[in-house]
Amino acid sequence: MNKLIITCAISGAEVTKKDNPYVPYTVEETIEEAYQAYKAGASIIHLHVRNDDGSPTQSKLRYQKIMKGIRKRCPDVIIQPTTGGAVGMNRDTRLKPTELNIEMATLDCGTLNFGGDDIFVNTENDIKYFAERMKERHILPELECFEKGHVDMVLRLHKKGFMIEPLHFSFVLGVNGGMTGEERDFHFMRESIPKHCTYSVAGIGRFEFSLAELAIRYGGHVRVGLEDNIYLEKGLLAKGNKELVEKVVSLAKKYNREIATPKEAREILGMKEFNHENII
Fold first, then answer.
1. Cα maximum dimension of the chain
2. What CATH number matches the domain at 6-269, 3.20.20.70, 3.10.20.80, 3.10.530.10, 2.10.50.10?
């Protein structure tokens, strides 16, 4: 079994300091949270950036400043900017981080309800547009799938040449409007992708650690972080992303699953060598 890749989603676009005071907003806070998660065992930092007031932004300059700071503290970490951005952003705004010299980014593979009147829109043409941009720039997409239809969309677009291998899926389960995060859902999703593909699981809220444990047991990889879940256990707020990563490391030890370094994560995911210094 491959070593375990841990991704840490350190802030997201929706959760706030009112929910958990450790959610990072400023440049300095974001860099520090990334560093602490990396030290704890995360080889991939899933990156949203915020303005100092906590509002989400896809500003290229903001990403550049934060990415430079993260690389200074964590020279070999994989930085994975979001192209999901926040609900209501248009295609080109969401794609701003891909104008930087990045090696990996998320690609959302379908539309879903996001609670209340919010709809996270990802049409088939949106997905093709994002996939073509990433292919042109040699960026590995993490294929975010919130339900089975999103997996089917990826496989159809792969057959048509819009997406090329390696295919790395991220099952985001437990979102209001998407699939729940029960064990049956996990197995349904992982059995829906080709055997040679890699996958990671992000459990939202109470599903975070139960799904992490299943992924560890069945050869998948894990995403945790304050974007997805603000609690270390029921009623106990996590004091930063570090504690969430450390809990996954403890679960991995239970199953004798070693933790992948960033270098090993790149090998597992089939990523080519990347020059981390060349940020434009």
1. 47
2. 3.20.20.70
